[in-house]
């Protein structure tokens, strides 16, 4: 039995939005504590160049591009986990379900997945494969980044639902 997951709409779009929102949060949090906006996301490049991790405070373009690529690919990966988990959960729920219940499930799952991602990133994986945000940000700022990531997992569906409701409302006489 195949799970109903639309690759672009359920994985790529939420992954890119989550990656973009968390990248913006990384930059904003870095600026708030007096660091370069590009430093935290560039730190992810320590996966490729571990010996250059200290150079990400003033990142070279290769650190920034590599960090952005890894960050967004991982965001899409977590969005895939989110989409398939949600599809599995929805498959077990009755076909006739309320829209609000689906929104609650999406928010609950995105929240849980964000906690799992943070736990995985900082407790499970070896230090070499942490996101590297900790080289430039403290725990409160990293928390903001993960909250932005979780919001990004849900945002495309909230916008899609809002647009659908507006079309329905304007179509009524």
TrEMBL record:
Record-given protein name: Uncharacterized protein
Lineage, top ranks: Bacteria, Pseudomonadati, Pseudomonadota, Betaproteobacteria, Burkholderiales
Transmembrane segments: 12-33, 107-125, 137-159
Keywords recorded for this protein, A-Z: Membrane, Transmembrane, Transmembrane helix
């Amino acid at each position: 039995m195949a799970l109903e997951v639309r690759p672009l709409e359920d994985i790529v779009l939420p992954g890119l939005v989550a990656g973009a929102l968390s990248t913006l949060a990384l930059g904003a949090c870095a600026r708030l504590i007096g660091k370069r906006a590009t430093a935290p996301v560039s730190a992810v490049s320590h996966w490729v160049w571990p010996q250059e991790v200290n150079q990400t405070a003033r990142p070279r373009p290769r650190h920034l591009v590599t960090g952005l690529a890894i960050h967004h690919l991982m965001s899409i990966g977590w969005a895939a986990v989110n989409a398939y988990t949600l599809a599995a959960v929805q498959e077990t729920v009755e076909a006739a379900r309320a829209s609000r219940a689906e929104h609650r499930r999406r928010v609950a799952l995105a929240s849980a997945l964000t906690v799992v991602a943070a736990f995985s990133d900082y407790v499970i994986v070896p230090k070499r494969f942490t996101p590297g945000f900790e080289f430039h940000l403290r725990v409160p700022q990293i928390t903001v980044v993960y909250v932005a990531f979780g919001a990004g997992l849900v945002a495309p569906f909230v916008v899609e639902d809002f647009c659908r409701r507006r079309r329905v409302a304007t179509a009524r006489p």
